[in-house]
Design a protein that fits this description.
By secondary structure, the protein is an alpha/beta fold. The chain has a seven-stranded parallel sheet. Strands 2-3 form a two-stranded antiparallel ribbon. The structure holds coproporphyrinogen III. The site of coproporphyrinogen III (CP3) has 22 residues, from strand 3.
Length: about 350
């Protein structure tokens, strides 16, 4: 594993990621990648093959610890993100969740009020105990100069899977619920605010240095629904988490919300905003960074492409955002076809850069 850099010696924080999340500008920014533990790694495919069922894998602390540490060991990433999934929450609430080979998640879709009434918060923390055990185990094994990230889905993104029963492109059924059954939708979102808040607090208590809220499908919402289903619930989660842990560090990733990023940054109170690939770093990215740290936003396809295109895209981001508080990341999850040498090269470029 790599030695602490000069940056770390200059910062009072143990890890570059925490320093950046608190607003420090580092000479070279910390780097980690969304979905960094995944199928592009042969060592991941190897641990994955040891359990037939994806959720069993998530709930096996030994396997989850191993998968979490893999990208830090191989690439020297500045942070490990806990190996788990956003759909452990509906599973813990009692909804049937399965991962079908080659098809992604399949849930027993919520149909109406009766299904909603059957969701049960009582067994949440007990059900998710293996996740917290895994976090504690990673904490023990992780180099202290590396940060540990916990995470959860945002209520809207989790709700889309619960309502649609699977991944979908436009989330029409979920939006239809929001318009036709606003009270039912509010009840579901309220339940998820509670579950996500508890899950994040428990992860911070188990040893996470920082947590990220993934709102992967926020971008399909028009303004009124964005406020009601994304921004406001996220603000409530941030408030709830800080009630329990006043110093909690939180990254918000509202993918695809475009010119509504400033409203999200201001109203939610997250410490760091995660920029998706479509955000202009020169425009919106730079404007957001005036108010706080930002994270992102390399196109995962540029990482897949490698070569000169990768060098150019990485430099273009560093030159604009690298002079302020910044965490280097992709603009969405790494693709399973990504060649490993491209990731090694990416980490080299970011490490060599001096702001
Ligand atoms: O980032 C990491 O390395 C930590 C682990 C992590 C996973 N899922 C593991 C996983 C994280 C942070 C997630 C988040 C997640 N899960 C999101 C939000 C981020 C995003 O990508 O927008 C969403 C929407 C999900 C739901 C989910 N889980 C889907 C849609 C799928 C199937 C798609 C796919 O890539 O296969 C999953 C399965 C999943 N979660 C895999 C991994 C590594 C692949 C399954 C496997 O290995 O068999």
């Amino acid at each position: 594993m790599t030695m602490p850099s000069a940056d770390q010696a200059n910062s009072s924080e143990a890890t570059k990621l925490v320093a950046a999340a608190k607003g420090e500008t580092l000479t070279s920014p910390p780097i980690w990648l969304m979905r960094q533990a995944g199928r592009y790694l042969p060592e991941y495919r190897d641990v994955r093959s040891r359990s037939k069922n994806f959720l069993d894998f998530c709930y096996s602390p030994e396997l989850a610890i191993e998968a979490t540490l893999q990208p830090v060991t191989r690439f020297g990433m500045d942070a490990a993100i806990l190996f788990s999934d956003i759909l452990v929450i509906p599973d813990a609430l009692g909804q049937t969740v399965q991962f079908e080979q080659g098809e992604g998640p399949v849930l027993h879709a919520l149909r109406g009020d009766d299904d909603l009434a059957r969701l049960n918060m009582d067994r949440l923390s007990e059900h998710l105990q293996p996740v917290y055990t895994a976090l504690g185990g990673v904490r023990e094994k992780l180099d202290p100069t590396r940060a540990l990230i916990g995470f959860a889905g945002a209520p809207w993104t989790i709700a889309t899977y619960m309502i649609e029963g699977r991944g979908s492109r436009d989330h029409a059924l979920s939006r239809l619920w929001a318009y036709q059954h606003p009270e039912r939708m509010d009840r579901l979102i309220d339940l998820l605010v509670e579950a996500v808040s508890r899950h994040l607090v428990a992860q911070l208590e188990a040893g996470a240095d920082i947590v990220q809220i993934f709102d992967s499908w926020a971008g399909v919402l028009p303004d009124s629904l964005l406020e009601k289903l994304c921004i406001e619930p996220t603000a409530r989660i941030v408030g709830r988490v800080r009630e329990a842990r006043p110093d909690a560090l939180i990254i918000g990733f509202p993918r695809g919300i475009g010119d509504r990023y400033p409203a999200y940054q201001k109203a939610t109170g997250v410490n760091v905003v995660g920029l998706d690939t479509s955000v202009s770093v020169r425009g919106l990215g730079k404007a957001l960074q005036v108010n706080g740290p930002v994270q992102g936003n390399l196109d995962p396809i540029a990482l897949l492409a490698g070569g000169d295109a990768l060098e150019r895209e990485v430099m273009a981001i560093l030159e604009v955002l690298g002079h302020g508080p910044f965490i280097f990341n992709l603009g969405h999850g790494i693709l399973k076809e990504t060649p490993i040498p491209h990731v090694t090269r990416l980490v080299e470029i970011v490490r060599a850069w001096r702001g």
